[in-house]
Amino acid sequence: MLATAVVDLLLSVVREWNAPGGLGETLAGFALTVAFLLLLPALSGGVLGRRQPLVRLLRERNQYLERAQELTAEKARLKERAHIATEMHDMLGHRLSLISMHAGALEITAAKDAPRFSGQAELLRTTAATAMAELREILGVLNDTQGSPPETVGEHSGTRADITDLVAESRRAGIAVELVWSGADVDDADVRARHGVHRVVREGLTNVHEHAPTAPARVEVAHEADRIRVRVINGAAHGAHRPSGTRRGLVGLEERIELLRGAFSAGPTPEGGFQISAELAAHPAVPAPAANRPLPEVREPLDAEVLTLPRAVGAGCLGLLAVVPVATGLIMLIILLAIE
Known about the structure:
Elements: H1 2-15, H2 22-113, H3 118-143, H4 160-172, E1 177-183, H5 191-211, E2 217-224, E3 227-234, H6 248-259, E4 263-268, E5 274-281, H7 303-306, H8 309-339
Parallel strand pairs: 1-2
Antiparallel strand pairs: 2-3, 3-5, 4-5
C-alpha cells in the first residue's frame, strides 16, 4: 500500500507538473494517505503493545497476592497449632506421667497385698501409658507441617490384629463387645487410611465406655476392593443415665475422615443406641497442605516482552512516517532536476 502511494505520487507529479495548483493538491492528498496508512497503525500498535504486558503482569501480581494471602492464613493456623501443642504438652504430659507412675506403684502393691485388684491396677497403668502415647501422637500431628502421617502411628494400626486388641481391651474393662470382620486385612492399605479405621473404632468404643457401659456393642469392619467401611454400634444403655458429651471427639474424627476424602456419620439408632460409621478409600489421594505448595514465580516483564509485535509494528510505522516524507522529497527533487 505504501509503495502504491509513492508510485502514484511520482506519476501524478509528472502528469500534473504543468497544471496550475495540481502539484499542491497531489502533495496534500499524498500526505493524507501517508497519515492514514502509517499514523493509525502506529498509534494502535503502540497502545496494544503497552497494554498486553501490563495485563499479563497484573494477572501475575493478582495470583501472587492471592497465594500470599492463603499462605499467611496457613502460617497463622500452623502457629496456633504449635501453641496448642505446647500447652497440651505442659498441662497434660506431666499429669499423665504422674498417673502412669502411681499406677505402676499401685500394681506392684496390689500384686503383694491384694492380688484380686492386680488386673485393674495393670489396666490403669497400661491405659495411662496408652494415653501418654496418644498425646504424643496428637502433638506430632499438631506440629506436623508436611501432611504426613504421625511417626507414632504403629506399624499395624488399623489392621485386624490392632482392632482385635482394641476390642479385647474393652472386654477387659467390662464391655460386652464383639468384632465382625469381613474381607481381607487392611495391612496393605495406606497408613492414613488404616489410622482412620483405628480412630473410628477407638472413638466408638470410648463413647460406649462413657455413655453406655452396660449396653452390648459391635464393631464391624468390611474391606472390599479399594474401600474400607467401619462401624461401631451399641444398644440402648441400661441403669443410670449418663450425661451426653461435648461431641468434640466426633467433630474431630469427622474432620479427619473428610481430610481423607471419606464419608462419616454418627447418631442415635432407632433402638435407642448409638452408632458411628465411616467409609474411606484404602489409598486416599490427599493433596499437600497449602503451606507446602510453592509460591508461583512472579517476575518483572523483560525488555523483550515489553517490545511485543504490536509495539514493534507501531514503532516501525512511526519510523516510516518520519522517513517516507524525507525520501519522497528527495525523489521529487531529483525528478524536478531531471525535467528541467
